[in-house]
Structure prediction request, 386 residues.
Amino acid sequence: MSHGNPASDVVPKTDTPSSHGHGHGHGHGSSTQQPPQQPPPAIDAEPKVPKEEKSSSFIVQEVHAFYSGVMFFTRMSVPKWVNHSLYWLSLSTVYFPVIGVLVALVGFFWFTIAYYLFPGSTIIPPIFYTMATIRFTGGFHEDGLADMCDGFGGGWTKSSILRIMRDSTIGTFGGLGLILFQLMKMGAVGYLLDTIPLRSLEEIQGVVGVVAQLAGSRGPISSLINLVPVSVLQHCWKLAHIGGVLVAGHVFARWSCTYLLFRYKYVENASAVGKEYLLTVTPRRVVMATIFTAVLVAGALIAVPTEEYWIQMAVAWAVTIYVTVGMGRYINRVIGGVIGDCLGATNQIVECTIYLALGVNWIRIFGDAANLYLIVKSFVDSFIKA
Prediction:
């Protein structure tokens, strides 16, 4: 595969003596004079459009793009007709939040199993969840986090940072950053598991009754609830809360990657894939990705329809936007754009930020801040009057 670079397919192949042993850039042991090295072919200014794109409908193209993203970012099997092409992969940016839901559901499945096997533990379920998501994605984003920690921690100039990040080995900064972030993420999920209360039967019936009434099937759902033991309902409610948190974390994290690809240029000579991304992350697709994010997070909110949870999620989204914009500005200031490793690192940082933000009692913090303001204001007023 030429990866959208047809110039590499038109290099003439001669059969002169001077060309022997030069196929891979090596001429060891040859007494003949080597021809001057040709400069590497430039990356195409436009992505190479596959033949299927011209003969398929809009829906088929979008499905192909979605499956290409799934094939690239996960270990999930896709239909055989999906063509591995940078063109289709570049179009998949709009579906990053949807792919995040798939990753979250796989992690939540193993989280639930650990929650059932080890009741009362706030450590083992998050570990199961983290191991499952890493296995499902192949540690794709974690690798980017480690590389960025190595590059930004050990490099002093743009060239040295990019050189370190291209190195396949992991250094001290990368190892420490990867371990600490995974510990923080598992600790945040464990904290949420510990602090989310088991609701009373009356609370569960009230909320389920509202949802059932909106769905127009209150009678059958209420009858089904009466057959389920109270303890099972309570733990299912708690798991639904955790599931919504995990979905929100992965959806927001992948939306941040789409935004950064749209907002900042891909660093020159860092990756040919980045060029393809840059050409197709249009404002329209960013808006579509944002709509997908809002809809998917709204679905997570419906799982736990409480006012407190909705306030927490709204603040968490605001914090996510702040962190995403801040990461983009910082990365752009250091290396003049973004690359894949930085996107993976931002993904991990935003996901961890969501869990931390949802664990904070913002209502209490805002109340304490208001009380502190009144105390300081009263003290200043009394000092001025004195």
The chain is about 70% helix and 0% strand. Residues 1-32, 39-46 have pLDDT under 50 and may be disordered. Residues 245 and 355 are 7 Å apart (CA to CA). The longest helix spans residues 230-263.
